[in-house]
Amino acid sequence: MTRAPGTFTVRPMDPVTDAALVYGWVTHPKAAFWMMGDARPEDVERAYWAIAAHPHHDAFIGLHEGEPAFLMERYDPAEVELKGLYEAEPGDIGMHFLVAPSDTPVHGFTLAVIITVMETLFADPDVRRVVVEPDVTNAAVQALNRAVGFEVIRRITTPEKDALLCACTREQFEDATTGAHR
Predict the structure, then answer these.
(1) In sequence order, what are the beta bridge partners of 68?
(2) Paired strand residues for 62
(3) pTM to 2 decimal places
(4) What is the pLDDT of residues 52-86, one digit of tens each?
(5) What is the pLDDT of residues 32-43, one digit of tens each?
(6) Furthest CA-CA distance within the chain
(7) Which has the closest alpha carbon to 91: 119, 130, 144?
(8) 109: number of CA atoms within 13 Å, CB side?
(9) CA–CA distance from 154 to each of 13, 98, 117, 175 (Å)?
């Protein structure tokens, strides 16, 4: 598995300085599964202030070569998003990610982003498994999830969508990405 060139890093999102940037990402037509297409700038800022204030949810800006390139959210699935929809295990962490729209796509870039997201999550030694809930119709992200080791547990219904509950252990991720350029 090859990785897009360059350096990827992650920093906490600042709702004050990053909301306008993120607004352009989450309202872009390519971000339809983010479900914020009709949001106003103040809606996006309010949403990320709520995440910043939440004890079990965090947002981050991912950088490629020092420039903002993706959004990452990390959450405790026993408390946020999946609460009551599955039996959370100790060491579970939930995540969402969104790659910034680009007029010049780079082959392998989104795969490099999800690898960076997973490496960031697994950098915490307490994280044993990452869980996600992609929309059942989002074939692109399902393929990316499989590429980094996710397995479908079952179909679930959330208040927003019909989704596939998927999980990836640290070992599954390492097995799937062995040989990826670091």
Answers:
(1) 63
(2) 10, 70
(3) 0.91
(4) 999 999 999 999 999 999 999 999 999 988 998 99
(5) 777 788 888 999
(6) 43
(7) 130
(8) 15
(9) 31, 23, 23, 22
